[in-house]
Design brief:
heterodimer, A: mainly beta, 4-stranded antiparallel β-sheet, B: mainly beta, 6-stranded mixed β-sheet, 5-stranded antiparallel β-sheet, 11 strands
Chain lengths: 115, 113
């Protein structure tokens, strides 16, 4: 199984809602990533988890709260988002941490719209 | 902020023709350069990870070269097929131990049957 599964594929939420994005991989990868991509822009790193511990937070606003409950699962909890947070949220994983000379495996993303 | 640029932004190529596009990155520090293919409504898929100056990688009709001293990589597609239509992204990592990849904006390739 070389898949990274993201759910839901689409999400529409109001600014007062709380929702969560879910990402799962069963490849035994020890690094997991959240990226955000706005239209016509490159994917931008948000968070990196290494061995289930948060190792990078790219100064992401606290209305985004990541969680890695176990080595296969990565969540992104959303609360009080703004319309400008509407974007495609991509999850990725890689086998090892601390080095990026090996490929990332991506999910197909969650398209988020904040109304 | 690292500047990773890809050119052209978009490209239309006749089926059967060969094509290439460029990824430019800072040449001051280099650790790894990634290429991904991203078809609409699918996941980005890794094509190559390149780490050595002068590296050449090949996967079927697709190949890539790397020049770390001048800060560029070329992706070549030989005999384009409709299934090659996708956005091709490069991503750059300047340092060992750095878990952050900086992506370019991509080259959107459309193959005309």
């Amino acid at each position: 199984d070389t898949e990274v599964t993201q759910t839901p594929k689409h999400l529409v939420m109001g600014m007062t809602n709380k929702k969560s994005l879910k990402c799962e991989q069963h490849m035994g990868h020890r690094a997991m990533y959240w990226y955000k991509q706005k239209a016509k822009k490159p994917p931008e790193l948000m968070f990196v988890y290494s061995y289930e511990k948060l190792s990078i937070n790219e100064s992401v606003p606290s209305r985004f709260s990541p969680e890695c409950p176990n080595s296969s699962l990565l969540n992104l909890h959303l609360h009080a988002l703004q319309p400008e947070d509407s974007a495609l949220y991509l999850c990725a994983s890689s086998q090892r941490t601390g080095t990026l000379n090996e490929k990332l495996f991506f999910g197909s993303g969650t398209q988020l719209s904040v109304l | 902020i690292l500047n990773v640029e890809q050119s052209p932004q978009s490209l239309h190529v006749q089926e059967g023709d060969s094509t290439n596009f460029t990824c430019s990155f800072p040449s001051s520090n280099f650790y790894a350069l990634h290429w991904y293919r991203w078809e609409t409504a699918k996941s980005p898929e890794a094509l190559f990870v390149m780490t050595l100056n002068g590296d050449e990688k090949k996967k079927g009709r697709i190949s890539a070269t790397l020049n770390t001293k001048e800060g560029y990589s070329y992706l070549y597609i030989k005999g384009s097929q409709p299934e090659d239509s996708a956005t091709y992204l490069c991503a750059f990592n300047p340092n060992f131990g750095n878990e952050k990849l900086t992506f370019g904006t991509g080259t959107r390739l459309t193959i005309i049957p």
